[in-house]
Specification:
This protein is α/β, with parallel strands linked by helices. Helix content is 28%, strand content 23%. The chain has an eight-stranded parallel sheet, sandwiched between helices. A five-stranded mixed sheet has the order 3-2-1-4-17. Helix 3 links the parallel strand 8 and strand 9. Pfam families: Amidohydro_1 (PF01979). It comes from Streptomonospora wellingtoniae. This is Amidohydrolase family protein.
């Protein structure tokens, strides 16, 4: 039986049952016990966060890592470092990427590039028009936790998009192996070239009907195949009714949106800004409000999770601000940190089958985030992402990956010691191999 070597206490621990004071006993990389806030302990390290909340580490599904022309190893190093600063302890990487993850060779190249990074990295295999059943089975056997594809150019170059016949064939194969599929749902036939720079021109060139048409295609295929499908990124709130109807008829389809769609209506961002030129595009204020309504539905919500939508070099690059940006908007709508945990950790972990991730419960990996929900900060003007210069509420104060300090400032402990160095770098050696297989 592993011994508890660290106890982490907080008056606001986000568990599946809600937010409450608790102490978390950690050993051998796992959560071994959840007890009362003042429960006695003989553990060598005892960290008391006080009013700083403790959340399960974020599981960020469908985040790209590599900007065009960027060295793959450097891209993983930079993106994972930014991810953990944003509260992400498991990165589920997708395309665009070079090499593409269309077979075992490509996946092994990415595994090698990501080796030694913190947080851990899992992978989505790419489904293209030329993918064969053998390709998909090979990727699954090599450790892909799921798959992704695009109906347009959202997951890379236009020649990677997939039409209905190969899509349905692939979905049948994925259903047979119980593998989930993440889909960029904009229909290529509804898109046009932007008539100028900036978010407004992009919104005109990529209208909501493109997303609606793509969602309708996915619903028809999912109802036949039985595949678990996630529409990501989801931006057009008018499509929520289509997804709700499909779910009512038994289709296993849901959606993931991103903090920038929930925080930044197109009316509030500068024209000509490359930092806000995401695909699908930012949409109107009323659309943003409707997205929130779909996310906050207490019945059977169609938007079940929130991911960064990180796309360095080809769209929004904001993974380092995932939790603060989301919390800034969520707190105004009466949400608590348990909602953050459900959207960014529990639901995505369950979708991709990472069975030891996403919850603060005994038996789960000790992937934990200290989150100061009251702290205010201003995003530096030098930041290249969509939140540049904005005032955000909430700050990631620290993070543990499988029980080891991965990021953060010095926090009170008994005996007094830092769980990370003052500059935020982890004082430990990262795992030899990033997580790639469902557990």
């Amino acid at each position: 039986m592993p011994q508890i070597d660290t106890v982490i206490r907080s008056r606001q621990v986000a568990t599946p049952g809600g937010v409450a004071p608790a102490s978390i006993g950690v050993g051998a990389g796992r959560i071994l016990a959840v007890a009362g806030y003042r429960a006695p302990s003989t553990a060598p390290e005892d960290v008391d966060l006080g009013e700083t909340a403790l959340l399960p580490g974020g599981v960020d599904v469908d985040a790209a890592v590599q900007a065009p022309g960027r060295d793959l190893g450097e891209a993983y190093a930079d993106t994972t470092a930014a991810a953990v600063r944003g509260g992400v302890t498991t990165l589920v990487a997708s395309g665009p990427a070079d090499p593409p993850i269309t077979g075992e060779r490509g996946l092994l190249a990415h595994l090698a590039a990501a080796a030694g990074t913190v947080p851990g990295v899992a992978f989505l295999g790419a489904v293209t028009a030329s993918s064969t059943p053998a390709d998909l089975a090979e990727l699954r056997a090599a450790g892909a936790v799921g798959f992704h594809c695009s109906l347009s150019d959202g997951a890379g170059s236009a020649d990677q998009r997939i039409d209905d016949t190969p899509l349905r064939k692939a979905m049948a194969e994925l259903a047979a192996m119980d593998a989930p599929l993440v889909v960029h749902a904009e229909d290529a036939g509804e898109l046009s070239e932007p008539q100028g720079p900036g978010p407004s021109a992009l919104m005109a060139a990529r209208p909501a009907r493109a997303e609606r048409r793509g969602v309708e295609r996915l619903v028809a295929a999912a109802r036949i195949s039985g595949t678990r499908v996630l529409v990501s990124p989801f931006s057009a709130a008018e499509c929520a009714a289509v997804l709700a109807a499909a779910r009512a008829m038994g289709a296993g389809i849901s959606a993931q949106t991103c903090p920038h769609y929930l925080c930044l209506p197109v009316e509030q961002v500068p024209e000509g800004s490359a930092a806000h030129s995401c695909r699908p595009p930012l949409r109107s204020g009323p659309n943003r409000d409707a997205l929130w309504s779909a996310l906050l539905d207490r019945g059977d919500p169609v938007i079940t999770q929130v991911g960064s939508g990180h796309r360095p070099g080809t769209g929004v690059a904001g993974i380092g601000w995932t939790l603060p940006a989301l919390w800034t908007a969520a707190r105004r709508r009466g949400c608590d940190v348990a909602d953050l945990a459900r959207w960014t950790s529990q639901a995505p972990a369950e979708f991709v089958g990472l069975r030891r991730k996403g919850r603060i419960e005994p038996g789960y990996d000790a992937d934990l985030v200290a989150f100061d929900a009251a702290a205010e900060q201003t995003v530096p003007e030098s930041d290249p992402g969509p939140y540049c210069g904005r005032k955000l509420v909430g700050r990631v104060a620290g993070a543990w990956v499988e029980g080891r300090g991965a990021y953060g400032c010095a926090l009170p402990a008994v005996p007094r010691r830092r769980f990370a160095e003052p500059d935020g770098h982890a004082p430990h050696t990262a795992p030899e191999k990033p997580a790639a297989r469902p557990r």
